[in-house]
Design a protein that fits this description.
It is built from eight helices and no strands. With 168 residues, it is mainly alpha-helical. The protein has two domains: 12-65; 69-166, no CATH class. Helix 1 packs antiparallel against helix 2, helix 6 packs antiparallel against helix 8 and helix 7 crosses helix 8 (142-166). The N and C termini lie far apart (49 Å).
């Protein structure tokens, strides 16, 4: 007879953590001063990273609590028109971090009705980086940056339509 009790899977991150701790213990016996120094550096890095992680987790919880992904996907569906394009464009421009971080969210939204074109618009407009605009203006001139930014935003209209045609 099969055991019907639920078995709990141990997250693979636990194995990694245990391996790191074990390696550290071994290295501690080999080189105590080096191990102490590396532990001190690790704590300094943790002091820097932990406040950022707390902010990111709080922001994510806030967004998950107040924003309904079903509603967002509705605003980014094929029927959303220019309003959806504007939302995807603004979302792409203001989003930060590496693109792969956004893949899961966009996949979830696509599963709830977001069009392929809107996903493409979002990723296309991520190339516009607000924090980097001043440096770009310094190197290339205000006129160049304004024209390039407007062309990129306008080109995302074409990307939107082409992607929706391809994915019909």
């Amino acid at each position: 007879m099969e055991d019907k009790r639920k078995t709990r899977k141990v997250p693979t991150g636990i194995y990694f953590l245990l391996a790191v701790i074990l390696i550290f213990i071994v290295l501690f016996f080999i080189d105590r001063t080096g191990a102490k120094e590396s532990l001190k550096i690790s704590f300094n890095i943790a002091k820097t990273i932990i406040p950022i992680l707390v902010i990111v987790i709080a922001f994510t919880a806030f967004v998950n609590y107040f924003l309904d992904s079903q509603k967002i996907a509705k605003y980014l569906s094929k029927e959303s028109g220019i309003k959806g394009w504007a939302i995807a464009t603004i979302g792409g421009i203001i989003s930060h971090g590496p693109s792969f971080v956004w893949y899961q969210l966009i996949q979830d939204l696509r599963g709830k009705g977001m069009s392929s074109g809107m996903a493409a618009v979002f990723f296309y407009n991520r190339a516009i980086k607000i924090p980097l605009l001043p440096m770009m203006i310094f190197y290339f001139s205000l006129k160049f940056v304004v024209v390039l930014t407007l062309l990129m935003i306008t080109a995302s209209l074409i990307v939107w339509k082409v992607m929706d045609i391809i994915n019909k």
